[in-house]
Write a sequence for this structure.
């Protein structure tokens, strides 16, 4: 490691600047890592609530569909599903969380009124309408969960990347630079002692010749 380093004062100055820069970067990255972890747990808190709500919505939708299937055939239910022409539009944007781009999903309302479904009074029943409404609500919940879980994955990936950079600086880069600095300082001190010793010898010789 030290064989490729010239033990000069200019090299020592350059190393001091590098160490200062590395320590500054290490401090900033630690703050970023800690901030990202806090943001992650905030998002996680919301995700837990959404997951719990989604599981409940799914069970309710399944129950209502089971009831609807007792009074209508699967063929009729499929035909009613295909009769609903309107498909919700989705706009995918992004937002910034401490430098991390996470998705922001905007969708048109999935849940519709009876008039918007255009199934007609004869085409549907109150039980079927309840099942349709339950699944529409479920889709809206799925969109919210997709947004928040994607945000969690991206935050987690950035946290891991930042942690690796912090560890690399803390346990590899900075110790290596400090070691090089120590080597150069010791070598410069040795050279200084050698110069002093040489000067003393020259001075002693000069004094002997002057006698």
């Amino acid at each position: 490691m030290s064989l490729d380093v010239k033990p000069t004062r200019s090299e020592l100055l350059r190393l001091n600047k590098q160490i200062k820069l590395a320590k500054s970067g290490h401090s900033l990255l630690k703050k970023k890592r800690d901030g990202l972890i806090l943001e992650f747990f905030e998002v996680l808190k919301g995700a837990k609530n959404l997951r719990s709500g989604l599981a409940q919505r799914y069970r309710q939708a399944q129950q209502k569909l089971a009831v609807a299937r007792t009074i209508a055939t699967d063929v009729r239910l499929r035909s009613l599903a295909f009769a609903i022409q309107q498909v919700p539009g989705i706009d995918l944007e992004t937002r910034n969380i401490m430098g991390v781009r996470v998705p922001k999903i905007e969708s048109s309302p999935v849940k519709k009124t009876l008039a918007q479904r255009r199934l007609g009074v004869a085409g549907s029943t109150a039980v079927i309408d309840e099942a349709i409404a339950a699944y529409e609500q479920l889709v809206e919940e799925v969109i919210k969960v997709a947004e928040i879980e994607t945000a969690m994955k991206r935050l987690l990936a950035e946290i891991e990347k930042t942690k690796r950079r912090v560890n690399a600086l803390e346990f590899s880069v900075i110790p290596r630079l400090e070691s090089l600095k120590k080597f150069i300082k010791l070598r410069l001190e040795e050279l200084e002692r050698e110069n002093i010793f040489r000067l003393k010898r020259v001075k002693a010789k000069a004094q002997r010749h002057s006698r």
Q: What stands out?
A: The two ends are 50 Å apart (CA to CA). DSSP finds four helices and two strands in the chain.
